């Protein structure tokens, strides 16, 4: 049997040897890409220092806060801001931001809070209606007077039912006996 398999394999090898493998030719040619261009360096600008400040002082809403900040243009920033807390104290924050990170120092100044000036107008008195409340007497209602409706017996007689004339025998089904495994 082994000899037959060897002969068969030799015949198949000889048959395949006379055919050459087809040359691969793609249906399309791949696009030619050029090398990526080097990015232009990011332009450098001259340092632009800045400085700003603002403050808000609103006696009607008790919104009192301020801020001031300045920069040297090289990434170093110094500033301060303050605000009036609800308890009447003032919170002051001095901060710096530079190559070491952001650093803030918070201070709380007690009792130097803002006190709103007294209003220049007199508040209106509490509202009191000028009329007296109406006097109502409870309405007098009598108990409803109605009588239950009178129904008479139905005008038709009840149908009479009788058993059917034919009868059916029980089905001839017998269940299979139960086998316990």
TrEMBL record:
The keyword Signal applies. It comes from Macrosiphum euphorbiae (potato aphid). Residues 1-17 form the signal peptide. GO terms for cellular component: extracellular matrix; extracellular space. This is Cuticle protein. Pfam families: Chitin_bind_4. GO terms for molecular function: structural constituent of cuticle. InterPro entries: CHIT_BIND_RR_consensus, Insect_cuticle, Insect_Cuticle_Struc_Prot. PROSITE patterns: CHIT_BIND_RR_1, CHIT_BIND_RR_2. The keyword Signal applies. Keywords: Cuticle, Signal.
């Amino acid at each position: 049997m082994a000899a037959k398999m060897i002969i068969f394999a030799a015949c198949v090898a000889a048959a395949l040897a006379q055919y050459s493998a087809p040359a691969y030719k793609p249906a399309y040619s791949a696009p030619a890409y050029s090398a990526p261009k080097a990015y232009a360096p990011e332009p450098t600008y001259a340092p632009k220092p800045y400085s700003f400040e603002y403050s808000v002082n609103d006696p009607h809403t008790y919104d009192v806060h301020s801020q001031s900040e300045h920069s040297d243009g090289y990434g170093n920033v110094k500033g301060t801001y303050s605000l009036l807390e609800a308890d009447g104290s003032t919170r002051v924050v001095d901060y710096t931001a530079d190559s070491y990170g952001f650093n803030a120092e918070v201070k709380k100044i007690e009792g130097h809070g803002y006190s709103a000036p007294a209003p220049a107008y007199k508040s209106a008195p509490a509202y009191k209606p000028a009329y007296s409340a109406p006097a109502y007497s409870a309405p007098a209602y009598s108990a409803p007077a109605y009588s239950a409706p009178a129904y008479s017996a139905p005008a038709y007689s009840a149908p009479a039912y009788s058993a059917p004339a034919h009868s059916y025998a029980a089905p001839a089904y017998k269940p299979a006996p139960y086998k316990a495994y």
